[in-house]
Amino acid sequence: MEICIGKEKWNRAAALYVRMEVFVMERGIPLKEEFDSEDHDETIYVVIYDGEKPVATGRYKQIDADTIRPGRIAVLKEYRKKGLGAVVVKELEALGEKSGCTMSVIHGELSAVKFYEKLGYTKGTDVYYEDGVPCATLGKQL
User: Fold this and answer.
1) What's the CA gap between 63 and 57, in Å, rounded?
2) Is residue 24 part of a domain?
């Protein structure tokens, strides 16, 4: 497995491939909702590759001088339960720390709250809907 972090077009394409498979094809999230204005040429993606195949991804966003918002964390079905999602989140957090950030905030699907809690996040909001999916906001000091 190899981790690539960056905004190169090939790495972005790999990230979008994983999200297409997981969120659009598997989960049924509408295409226009999954790929939004945050997916642009300057967006940084973490992608884990198995050989040439992208298998896990996450999107980096710094929302202010102190806070990052990791997002669109996805792992292909056949690669789940191997710790790859945790690796993606930790890489995104490390990017934030390098930028001087001290807080990470995630809008997590309810089905993923326990996953994020295992990584040190705490739930901070009531349930709300994002892209038609029930979510909660979670935070963590970096």
Assistant:
1) 19
2) yes
Burial, 131: exposed, middle or buried (Cβ in 10 Å; 0-12, 13-18, 19+)?
middle
Identify the helix (H) or strand (E) that includes residue 134.
strand 133-141
Confirm whether 111 is domain-assigned: no
d(CA 70, CA 138): 11
CATH code of the domain containing 94:
3.40.630.30
Count of structural domains, the chain: 1
123 in a structural domain: no
Alpha carbon distance 54, 74 (integer Å): 11
At 51-97, the pLDDT tens digits run 999 999 999 999 999 999 999 999 999 999 999 999 999 999 999 99
- What's this model's pTM, rounded to 2 decimal places? 0.90
Q: What angle (nearest 5°) sits at the alpha carbon of residue 125, between those of residues 120 and 126?
A: 130
**In this structure, are residues 86 and 101 in contact, taking their beta carbons and an 8 Å threshold?**
no
For tokens 């995104």, what's the residue? 92
| Pairing of β 67-68 and β 103-109 | parallel
Domain that holds residue 38: 2-102
The Cα–Cα gap between 58 and 48 comes to: 9
